[in-house]
Structure formats: structure tokens, C-alpha cells
Amino acid sequence: MKTIKLAVIGAGARGFLAYMPYVQRFPREVEIVAVAEPNEERRQRFEEAFNLGAEQLYSTWEELLSQPKLCDALLICTQDQMHYEPTIAALRKGYHVLLEKPMSSSPSECVEMEKVAREEGRLLSICHVSRYTPFWQTMKRLVSEGSIGEIMSIQHNENVGYLHYAHSFVRGNWRNDELSSPMILAKSCHDMDLIRWLVDADCSKVSSFGSLGHFRIENAPAGSTDRCTDGCEVESSCPYSALRFYMQDLKSNPFAALIADPPTETNRMNAILSGPYGKCVYRTDNNVVDHQTVNMEFENGVTVMFSMSGFTRDINRIVQIMGTKGEIRGDLLNGRIELFEFSTGTQSVIQIPNNQSGHQGGDDGIMRQFVSDLRHERYSGTLTSAQASLESHLMAFAAESSRLNGGAVVEMKQFRESLAPASPSNAAV
């Protein structure tokens, strides 16, 4: 069996913590030959984990891609607005690419990336990891088998979780769409992808409403301060207290481990005192929405209502799929799928076993599939190829366009036609 050789661009939470456990468990299948990462500690972590030499460590993706071709494929796990240039350069250089979602914060760049992958005959797979989970694959199987007849409508709720929202989208890397992407893309492109996959038709119309309703300076409590450590009078009772949240035991709060590297108590306290994670949630430079709804109509007549909220207890997705012969209800957090059949009036319950790996097994799943696709030279038409992912990205962009224009209906055919491919990237080497 051929060992697939990979290099990683971006060695943070996704590049290392999400995808490298698979590599470490299956060293005969996959070998890491290089890493590009500006953070020295993260480079050293890769060096130690995979016995890399100094010549295999790069500070930037430009340095890595200036070398003769090193391996079969690249994992590109940089921030949202840093995807386009290294991806185009890698494809032009002859690499296959596993790209962290979203593809780009620009719709034209997404179109261009898919086009270049086709032109070069390269696999560009997008990390829509949810498709690889037992939960969503079971949902897809039930729909495809006709268990509920023809789908008529779907209601899909994304419960972001109040602490997850505060960490990632108020204080964190995805708090401002000028630094990352709009919320509907940064967080909910998974949901747009799942909806498109379940419906199995192109979207024809989109409208959307939503806003940043709560995490604003005018809602700051009396006595609050710029930072939680500045003598805030309400810190002890605030649900978003950085001190209480980030100084918890790391096993009980996985977000706490993400604010400092390594996440020692001293490093975490320093991050709270001086970094964005210690800011008052009402006084940051955040601008992404904290709640949003999207209404969609598809070319096969299916209608979908999607709702995202940052004000929920749990981090969960709940879906209801209504068909001509029955109904499916799914609760991702509890791994519970209910199938109700109209003809018999009976309900059956499918319990999905809890998977301890990231994203309910999706992180392992996409690595397994990507390696298999490379080994068997499947470079197009794969489960989360750029071709498959582009349409759901465009749905997200159209929803944001609608939201910014008072909820006006966006005709998807016209929206697609309006997107001229971006100019070829100067990053190609």
C-alpha cells in the first residue's frame, strides 16, 4: 500500500489537533514531510510529533511552495482570508489540496479555486467534515432510500452555544467579517452544505434576516470595564466572565486550551490580561451576527428554513425533514434519529454511538477519505470536492447579500452569473 505524503500549511487547532491524530494512528498510510507555520512553538510541536528535520520546517507557505514538489498533497488550515493564494499556488504546482472551510471569504475566489482545480486535474477537497459523520450519513441514507418519500420541507437549527459564540465570534478569530468571514460562511457553511446534500438539488431562491443584536457597547452592564480584569463590578455574575471561563480545568472546558500555547495557567492568565480573550464581550471589535435565519427554495420545490443562534445552552444541530410519506427528526448532540412513517403510524429510533474524535468522527472521516481518494486517483466528483462544495458556499454568500439588503430575495441563477472568476493569482509558482 502506497504511503501518501502530506505537508501542512497552518499548524494551529485544525492543522494539528483535528487532523494529525489520524496521521499518528496510521503512520503506514500517511507521512508528514513538511510544515509551514509562522508560530515557532507550533513548528516545534510538528517537529517533535513527526521527527522532522530543520530543513522540513518553514515559516511561511511561500517558502514551502518555493521548493521543488515535496509530496502528494497539502493540508491548508490557515485563517479564512488566507486560503485563496496558497491554494491556487499549490494547485498550479501540482499538489492535491485538502482545504479547511470556508474555501474563501470571496465568492469570486471560490469560483476561481474550483475552476483551477478542474483545469489542473487536481483534487481540491473542502473540510465539510459533517458529511463524514455516522449521524449525517445515516440521515442521508434514510432520505436516499425513500424512507419518507419525497422531501417537501426541512427545518434546520444550528445552536452555536452561548460560550462557543462568545469565545469564537465575539472575542476570537471569527469575530469580525473583515478579518475572517460573515457568520453564515464562517460557522454555518457546514449547514448550507448539509442542506444542499440532503435536498440534492440546486437552490433557486434565498432570503435572510439577522443582526448583531446583543454584543454591543450599548448593552454593556453598568459598572463593566474594557477588560474583565480591570475591576469590573459585574464580573463575578457575568455569564461571559473571561476569568471564570478560561481559568477552568482544561478537561471541562476545551476552549480554554485555545487561548495560549502551551495553555498553562500562567499563559492563559497572560492571554486574559493582554489579549482579545480578556476583553469585555460588549466592548470588542466584533461585527458578525449573533442570530440569523435563512429561507431557501430549491429547484425541485423543496423549501428550507435555517436558523442560527448564539444564545443556546448546548452546541448542537437539530433537524426536521418532512416528506410525503413520513418525517425524520435528528438531534446531533444526543445522537438520536427518529423516523415516523405515515402509512403505519409507527416510530423507530436510531441511536448513533458517541464518537470521541473531533466533530463526531468527521475529522477522522475526511482524512480517511482524502487519503483513499489520493491512493485510488479519484480527483473529481468526490464527496466534498470543490465542485460539490461551491454551490453551498454560493448559497451562504447569497444569504448574506440578502441580509445586508433588507431580506430581499436573491435569485440564485442571476447571482451565479454575476460572479466573474478572480484574476489568476500572482502566488502561482
Automatic annotation (TrEMBL):
Residues 4-126 form the Gfo/Idh/MocA-like oxidoreductase N-terminal domain. SUPFAM superfamilies: Glyceraldehyde-3-phosphate dehydrogenase-like, C-terminal domain (SSF55347), NAD(P)-binding Rossmann-fold domains (SSF51735). Gene3D superfamilies: Dihydrodipicolinate Reductase, domain 2 (3.30.360.10), NAD(P)-binding Rossmann-like Domain (3.40.50.720). Signal peptide: none annotated. Residues 140-393 form the Gfo/Idh/MocA-like oxidoreductase C-terminal domain. Belongs to the Gfo/Idh/MocA family. PANTHER family: BILIVERDIN REDUCTASE A (PTHR43377), BINDING ROSSMANN FOLD OXIDOREDUCTASE, PUTATIVE (AFU_ORTHOLOGUE AFUA_4G00560)-RELATED (PTHR43377:SF2). This is Oxidoreductase. It comes from Paenibacillus glycanilyticus. The lineage of its organism: Bacteria, Bacillati, Bacillota, Bacilli, Bacillales.
